[in-house]
Design a protein that fits this description.
Helix 11 (274-282) packs across helix 14 (356-363), helix 18 crosses helix 19 and helix 23 (530-542) crosses helix 24 (550-559). Strand 13 (267-271), helix 11 and strand 14 form a beta-alpha-beta unit. The chain has five domains: 7-107, Zinc finger, CHC2-typedomain (DNA Primase, Chain A, Alpha-Beta Complex), CATH 3.90.580; 109-245, DNA primase DNAg catalytic core, N-terminal domain, CATH 3.90.980; 247-374, Dna Topoisomerase Vi A Subunit, Chain: A, domain 2, CATH 3.40.1360.10; 389-449; 495-644, DNAb Helicase, Chain A (Orthogonal Bundle), CATH 1.10.860. It is 50% helix and 11% strand. By secondary structure, the chain is of the alpha+beta class. The strands form four sheets. The protein has a six-stranded mixed beta sheet, with helices on both faces. Mean pLDDT is 84; it is low at 451-485.
């Protein structure tokens, strides 16, 4: 079992990883000054790029929405992964073997290498299948897609491909790319046959339409294959078997495409098949996903809660099921897991029993959106389903139905809705409201006594994030909020505040300017603007021990800041400096610090001149002379600074 990652390894991964290379995988970045890059923010909708990355300091900051962080927090937010998962992913990317506290273990370098080989094999297979869809032999597959309303653009959007008929098309292709049979056996893309030790492997998917199944980061980890030909004796749908990459209880088809919409809209729509996911997305329901050959279970809920930020502040999960008995059974299974959510759960069932794919074909995109919009609370669906199992024309049937339905009403988390459904249930049963209310109250008490409170509800144990990493303060594991939160932003027209801000930008982005006497001067400086004074204090507290590594330096300063102000450090560390060459940058940095130090000298001189004017020279001749000497020394320092510029 993986333990807590050692703090020094977290720092090493952060420092060794090129944040621009990682961000480039999600955002198109363009140069915006020396060592600075800009792109459209992936965290909010915008037309002009305000998302800024500065690789030298390992930070990003959006000047539009205030999102900021380092490469670890970026991967966390984009992949909706835990801190632990993000660090392991980045470590694998650079080939760094992590160490763990408390005797825990993580993936070894060898395991990381094997996993990467599996991912590479799947990526190549994915490309192979997609290319095959365009060949003459895939006509049946193209006809299938066309018959369900999907054109070539839709197939490309979802990466749909075709596995050729025959036994070794993919096998030959991957062997030709350098993969051994031992490696290919681990992918789940091949079956084995033959006597004893002489077994040979052959393509698992043959003559089928192929959907790539990707994880939340967008890596292909398995495939789903749909039967096309009558002589195919296999099942209608054939998925990759369990492998080290593919765990069906943890996989949601379409999650890579839907994750941003789910997080933005606080909505997750669960449908039953690959074509249903396609139909939903093409109809404007971009939050749709599907399970892969299994029921929506506890591991899927963990993924959903993380994406929804399922913390009680809203969000909804909508299940779509066929209207038949199997669909009702699936809906009731989903209701059994309902208490693991804080988000409200709903069910959307089309009266004719049509699934989203059929509905889109029959009535168009709007009908799919209307289906999702017609959702009903899942508990209402469960109540009505329980009533159908009893003969409500008899007293015994009504009493039995009340006994079964009362615990369902008792589980309704919204205390405002619960009394309303007590009245609804009384009407459906034709029983006095008082009797139904007593039954529901009794069910609530029994649930409380039995500890049945919903593991994932408020105060429950189902968290949406991983544990805090070893040695890391809270800011290391959780991204901070936008830099505009928690402090009063100074007036940019204030010349003193502007001067102080420029000095902090320089020091954070190029700490080498603080070498020699500059550090003493900076340390003794006084900052008049409160938020900039806080950053100045954090820089002094961090010291120069880590100033040789800009990434570690900025992180050290951030850790000395109060949590609400850490985003300001990132902002100051990434804002482009007004120079286009390294030499110009150095001159600018020196000039800004010289102006800061001259400002400090001017302030001190003003204080001492005030004391001198108030002083009785005859009564205090020694102090008078001392102040004059100090004023002369300050003037010499000011002239020396000007001479250095």
């Amino acid at each position: 079992m993986a333990g807590l990652i050692k703090r020094e390894d977290i720092d090493e991964v952060r420092q060794r990883t090129d944040i621009k290379e990682v961000v480039d995988g999600y955002v198109t970045l363009k140069g915006a000054g020396l060592g600075t890059y800009k792109g459209l923010c992936p965290f909010h909708d915008e037309r002009s790029p305000s998302f800024t990355v500065r690789p030298q300091v390992g930070r990003y900051h959006c000047f539009g929405c205030g999102e900021d962080g380092d490469v670890i927090s970026f991967v966390q937010k984009m992949d909706h992964s835990s801190f632990h998962e993000a660090v392991e992913k980045l470590a694998a990317r650079i080939g760094y073997e992590l160490r763990y506290e408390d005797g825990g273990t993580g993936p070894s370098r060898e395991e990381v290498g094997k996993r990467q080989r599996l991912l590479d094999a799947h990526k190549i297979a994915d490309e192979f299948f997609r290319s095959q869809l365009l060949t003459p032999g895939a006509a049946e597959g193209r006809n299938f897609l066309h018959g369900r309303g999907f054109d070539r653009a839709a197939a490309e959007q979802f990466g749909v491909g075709y596995a050729p008929q025959g036994w070794d098309s993919l096998l030959k292709h991957l062997r030709g790319r350098g993969f051994t049979d031992a490696e290919l056996k681990l992918t789940g893309m091949f079956s084995a046959g033959g006597p004893g030790n002489q077994q040979r492997i052959y393509d698992r998917f043959r003559g089928r339409l192929i959907w790539p199944i990707r994880d939340i980061a967008g890596d292909t980890i398995g495939f789903g294959a749909r039967k096309l030909y009558e002589d195919d004796q296999g099942p209608k749908y054939l998925n990759t078997p369990e492998t080290t990459l593919y765990k069906k209880s943890q996989v949601l088809y379409g999650i890579d495409l839907a994750k941003r919409n789910i997080a933005k809209d606080r909505q997750l729509v669960v449908v039953e098949g690959y074509t249903d996911v396609m139909a939903c997305h093409l109809s404007g329901v971009g939050t749709a996903v599907a399970t892969c050959g299994t029921a929506f279970g506890a591991d899927h809920i963990k993924i959903a809660r993380r994406l929804l930020s399922d913390d009680g502040s809203g969000g909804e999960v909508i299940f779509t099921f066929d209207g038949d008995a199997a669909g009702q059974k699936a809906a009731l299974r989903a209701f059994e897991e309902d208490q693991r959510f804080v988000a409200q759960t709903y069910v959307a069932v089309e009266p004719t029993g049509a699934d989203p794919c059929d509905l889109r074909q029959l009535r168009g995109d709007a009908a799919v959106r209307e289906l999702i919009g017609s959702r009903r609370p899942l508990f209402e669906f469960a109540i009505r389903a329980s009533l159908k199992r009893h003969d409500l024309d008899t007293v015994e049937g009504r009493v039995a139905a009340l006994r079964e339905a009362a615990p369902v009403v008792a589980q309704i988390r919204d205390s405002g809705l619960r009394p309303a459904y007590v009245r609804e249930l009384a009407g459906w049963l034709g029983m006095p409201i008082e009797d139904v209310s007593r039954a529901v109250s009794g069910a609530q008490k029994r649930a409380a006594q039995g500890g049945q409170g919903g593991a994932g509800g408020p105060g429950g144990s189902q968290g949406s994030g991983g544990p805090q990493e070893a040695g890391g303060p809270a800011g290391a594991a959780m991204p901070t909020s936008g830099s505009g939160a928690g402090f009063h932003r100074p007036d940019p027209r204030d010349p003193v505040a502007a001067m102080e801000r420029q000095a902090l930008e320089v020091v954070l982005q190029d700490p080498s300017v603080l070498t020699g006497p500059a550090w003493d001067r900076f340390e003794l400086s006084r900052f008049a603007t409160p938020v900039y004074a806080a950053v100045h204090d954090a820089i002094r507290a961090a010291g120069l021990a880590r100033a040789g590594d800009p990434v570690a330096w900025v992180e050290a300063v951030r850790q000395e800041m109060p949590e609400p102000l850490r985003g300001l450090v990132s902002e100051l560390a990434v804002v482009p400096l007004p120079a286009s060459t390294p030499e110009a940058i150095q001159r600018y940095c020196r000039d800004i610090l010289a102006r800061l130090f001259e400002l400090q000298i001017t302030r001190i001189k003003a204080d001492k001149m005030g004391r001198l004017q108030r002083l009785d020279a005859a009564a205090n001749p020694e102090e008078f002379q001392q102040l004059n000497r100090e004023l002369m020394e300050l003037e010499m320092q000011r002239r020396a600074l000007r001479a250095e510029q």
